[in-house]
């Protein structure tokens, strides 16, 4: 119950009690005497509080809350107001190498001159950027990018140092491809010949030789089909994916192609006023020049054709409607293949699906159901194609091929792309060759490389620790869903079913232990050490064949929808599962021997983040089986949308300091919801962990911080980053995640537990009046204001001081303390009155065991900690349990009272005491924690009514 509601109840209770007793002069006299007594006690009480509480003096003096000499309105870090807890001297310090590294990380990143209540990111990460050097080829340095680089070093060692003689066949493929990538001399010797051979095999590209285009035998659908086999989208993309309607089936998907500039927003303006398209145009011209195109053409034909290529791609981009769509029903458009061909009969689909594609897809009858991801795109595609000559379509498709394969040419042919990246992203050099080649093998031969990595850097013990954390995180999410009073019961039940069914994959799949399974995706692949370009073609064709072959296979629970060597985690909507590959379960995100606060604050938040994705604006559209289905009640969904808009507005108001740009709250909404929910459930899970076992480890040099404070430091250290100013715009334009400073500060601003742990005063930057949250007992925008609630937390968290608009805080505090103590005496009288009735009821019932009656038939003895012992001891003794329950509850329906007391919705069944008995609680063990709320309702009712007749 919130504090305002408690205040209202106190006022109501006092009024009710006094009205019912004002005819009783004797009782009134007692109350008068108690009033005088409690006045004296209150004065003494306030005096003690004023002495003991270091925050109270400012209230008495009427000064600004927690002001400092600098006049900023909040105490500085050095003030005693910032409550750095201490473990105490009886805890052991973890001195393992990983613990020492972890402590060094935290301490080196920390800016102790910053006030954690003003900017926690600056406090936790303020020195990170000053210690990092952003390489010329990088846009930024982050904790995750450093983890990736460390993983790449391990992969480099695997590829270079592993025994070649004893290597498995799959590992030999990886090593050969790596060697061919590193062999720049062989690439220089071959020059552009491999690319020209590929172009020739696909029908040639007259633009390269300034020759005349012959359209007589040209079918763009045939060329598009061959490009698809080479891993190039072209005009549209065809791929296999789990069905949105039935996750137990695969379906063929038709969608718009991937765009070279990534986002539709980069294509909106016309080229003359669009700097991104100008960068793109220069890249095309520079690469064509290196490929031998005569750029001195006085007629301007080459530049015209280049402009036409860009115009065609721009018009494709403007046809798409799915980029900003977060309504997955709009991308689920099932149709039979026969009806699809009839609807879009101007396109020769038989020519597109060439023999090789069909051999891998298998049967494609007209009755086959397919999914048209973007109907608007395909409805208008032929009009676009018809508006262009066939030469333009050929130019565009061939450019798609060249821009996908220039990476595999000698270094000098990659310079145009480097210049483009420099302008677009702010990077000024190419990646080191070894990083490029490790990345190439990781992308195209992930299975054998993952096998070696997982064997060396991930253990079964690691997996067990991660799985234990997942159980805690899911339990915390369960409690969150149970506590969300804005969710109707049918939606809550479905949400809990989804959580219970949510699977998880940790580390790596067992299939990596099977060489046959590892080799399966690369069937028929033959690689040669000095043929980098041709090796790439073989691998890309094999990957596409493998993907198509899954069409008629049933998705398996053992299949992984993510790479293993990825420094990332995933939520797979149609699988209703979360995935944590071995690559993300590494230092400093996951440190098995470190104190629990470190793991729960870092990878624990990541686990919570992925679980929350199951309930964000996208995940909420998928049910427990991973099927796209509307399972939310309309009113609940309306409330959810309002809560979602709170986050959109909150993040949309945040300004990046170097550029002055505001965060795109709409583009980042899914990740922002997941960040907030992930942090919340991770902290709750950590509390569950502490309930089971005390935190006994501490980090060297950090004993001034409590475990909870270190949890938040671990969380913040996950998102420390250093950004290149020239790259910030592009990052904010393309990344669906908020920048690190906002990933840290905003979720913490929305979490009251953080402000409590660091004693951040209400109204300080890290404890704002307005907060957003999804799954809590709150409105869309949760307000924590002294004007609204009337409560301000003191340094001693056992006390709350009530403030009114009175100019004399001392009088107000005294009166409220008086009322609290007076209420205590009144409630004692009420309890005694009700307790006498309860004792008498049990004493007069011959079916109640006398021993149980003596032990449990009084309100002080029957509480949430005694319910289960009561059931265990008295359950075997006839009808004792149910008859005692009748006396305690008066066999009355207390549902309304329980609702007012914020009893968990699923536990309110026990409030209708004529229909439920305590033994039923064994089915819902968590409801025992609500028993004290039932007891308050039962006792209040019994005070004003006669006991039942036994």
From TrEMBL:
Gene3D superfamilies: Collagenase (Catalytic Domain), Neutral endopeptidase , domain2. Its cofactor is Zn(2+). Residues 841-938 form the Domain of unknown function DB domain. This is Peptidase M13 C-terminal domain-containing protein. The gene is Cni-nep-12. Belongs to the peptidase M13 family. Residues 116-509 form the Peptidase M13 N-terminal domain. One of its GO terms (biological process) is protein processing. The keyword Zinc applies. Pfam families: DB (PF01682), Peptidase_M13 (PF01431), Peptidase_M13_N (PF05649). Keywords: Hydrolase, Membrane, Metal-binding, Metalloprotease, Protease, Transmembrane, Transmembrane helix, Zinc. The chain crosses the membrane at residues 27-52. InterPro entries: DB, MetalloPept_cat_dom_sf, Peptidase_M13, Peptidase_M13_C, Peptidase_M13_dom_2, Peptidase_M13_N.
């Amino acid at each position: 119950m919130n504090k305002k509601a408690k205040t209202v109840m106190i006022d109501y209770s006092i009024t009710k009690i006094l009205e019912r007793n004002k005819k009783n002069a004797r009782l009134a006299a007692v109350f008068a005497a108690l009033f005088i007594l409690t006045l004296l006690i209150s004065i003494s009480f306030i005096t003690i509080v004023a002495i003991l509480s270091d925050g109270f003096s400012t209230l008495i003096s009427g000064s600004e809350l927690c002001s400092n000499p600098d006049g900023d309105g909040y105490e500085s870090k050095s003030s005693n107001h910032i409550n750095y807890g201490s473990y105490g001297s009886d805890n052991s310090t973890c001195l393992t190498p990983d613990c020492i590294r972890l402590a060094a990380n935290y301490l080196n990143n920390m800016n102790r001159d910053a006030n954690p209540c003003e900017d926690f990111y600056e406090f936790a990460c303020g020195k990170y950027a000053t210690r990092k050097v952003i390489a010329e080829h990088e846009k930024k340095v982050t904790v995750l990018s450093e983890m990736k680089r460390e993983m790449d070093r391990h992969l480099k060692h695997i590829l270079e140092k592993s025994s070649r003689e004893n290597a498995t066949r799959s590992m030999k493929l990886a090593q050969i491809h790596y060697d061919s990538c590193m062999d720049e001399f062989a690439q220089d010797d071959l020059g552009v010949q491999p690319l020209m051979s590929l172009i020739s095999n696909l029908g040639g590209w007259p633009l390269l030789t300034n020759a005349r285009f012959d359209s007589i035998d040209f079918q763009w659908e045939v060329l598009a089909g061959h490009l698809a086999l080479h891993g190039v989208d072209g005009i549209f993309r065809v791929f296999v994916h789990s069905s949105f309607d039935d996750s137990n089936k695969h379906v063929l998907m038709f969608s718009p192609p991937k765009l070279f500039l990534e986002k539709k927003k980069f294509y909106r303006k016309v080229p003359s006023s669009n700097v991104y398209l100008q960068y793109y145009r220069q890249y095309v011209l520079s690469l064509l020049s290196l490929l031998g195109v005569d750029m001195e053409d006085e007629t301007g034909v080459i530049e015209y054709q280049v402009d036409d290529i860009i115009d065609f791609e721009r018009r494709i981009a403007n046809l798409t409607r799915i980029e900003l769509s977060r309504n997955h029903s709009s991308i689920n458009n099932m149709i039979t293949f026969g009806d699809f061909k009839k609807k879009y009969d101007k396109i020769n689909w038989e020519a597109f699906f060439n023999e090789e594609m069909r051999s891998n897809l298998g049967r494609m009858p007209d009755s086959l159901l397919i999914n048209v991801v973007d109907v608007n795109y395909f409805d208008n595609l032929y009009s676009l194609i018809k508006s262009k000559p066939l030469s333009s379509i050929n130019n565009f498709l061939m450019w798609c091929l060249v821009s996908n394969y220039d990476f595999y040419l000698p270094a000098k042919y990659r310079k145009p792309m480097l210049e483009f990246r420099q302008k677009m992203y702010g990077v000024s050099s190419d990646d080191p060759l070894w990083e490029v080649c490790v990345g190439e093998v990781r992308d195209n031969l992930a299975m054998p490389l993952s096998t070696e990595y997982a064997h060396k850097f991930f253990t079964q013990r690691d997996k067990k620790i991660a799985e234990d954390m997942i159980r805690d995180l899911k339990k915390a999410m369960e409690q969150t869903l149970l506590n969300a009073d804005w969710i109707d019961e049918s939606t809550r039940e479905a949400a809990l079913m989804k959580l219970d069914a949510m699977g998880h994959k940790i580390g790596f799949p067992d299939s990596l232990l099977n060489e046959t399974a590892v080799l399966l995706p690369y069937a028929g692949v033959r690689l040669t050490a000095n043929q980098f370009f041709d090796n790439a073609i073989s691998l890309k064709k094999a990957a596409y064949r493998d993907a198509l072959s899954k069409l008629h296979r049933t998705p398996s629970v053992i299949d992984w929808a993510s790479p293993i060597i990825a420094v990332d985690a995933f939520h797979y909507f149609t699988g209703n599962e979360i995935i944590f590959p071995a690559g993300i379960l590494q230092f400093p995100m996951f440190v098995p021997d470190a104190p629990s606060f470190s793991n729960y604050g870092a990878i624990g938040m990541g686990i919570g983040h992925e679980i929350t994705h199951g309930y964000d604006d996208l995940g909420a559209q998928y049910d427990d089986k991973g099927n796209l289905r509307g399972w939310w009640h309309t009113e609940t969904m309306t409330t959810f949308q309002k809560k979602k808009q709170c986050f959109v507005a909150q993040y949309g108001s945040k300004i990046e300091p170097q550029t002055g740009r505001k965060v795109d709250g709409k583009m980042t909404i899914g990740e922002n919801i997941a960040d907030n929910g992930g942090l919340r459930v991770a902290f709750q899970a950590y509390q569950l962990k502490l309930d089971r076992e005390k935190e006994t480890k501490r980090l060297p040099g950090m004993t001034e911080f409590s475990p909870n404070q270190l949890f938040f430091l671990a969380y913040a250290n996950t998102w420390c980053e250093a950004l290149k100013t020239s790259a910030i715009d592009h990052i904010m334009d393309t990344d669906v995640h908020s920048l690190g400073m906002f990933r840290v500060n905003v979720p913490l601003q929305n979490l009251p537990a953080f402000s409590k742990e660091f004693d951040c005063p209400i109204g300080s930057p890290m404890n704002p009046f307005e907060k957003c949250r999804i799954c809590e007992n709150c409105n869309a925008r949760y307000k924590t204001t002294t004007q609204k609630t009337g409560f301000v937390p003191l340094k001693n968290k056992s006390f709350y001081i009530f403030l009114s608009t009175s100019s004399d805080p001392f009088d107000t505090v005294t009166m409220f303390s008086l009322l609290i103590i007076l209420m205590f005496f009144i409630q004692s009288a009420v309890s005694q009155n009700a307790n006498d009735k309860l004792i008498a009821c049990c004493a007069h019932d011959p079916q109640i065991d006398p021993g149980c009656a003596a032990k449990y038939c009084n309100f002080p003895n029957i509480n949430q900690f005694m319910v289960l012992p009561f059931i265990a001891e008295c359950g075997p003794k006839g009808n004792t349990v149910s008859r005692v329950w009748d006396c305690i509850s008066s066999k009355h329906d207390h549902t309304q009272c329980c609702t007012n007391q914020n009893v968990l919705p699923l536990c309110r069944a026990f409030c209708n005491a004529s229909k439920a008995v305590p033994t039923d609680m064994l089915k819902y063990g968590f409801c025992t924690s609500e028993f004290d709320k039932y007891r308050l309702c039962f006792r209040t009712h019994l005070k004003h009514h006669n006991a039942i007749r036994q």
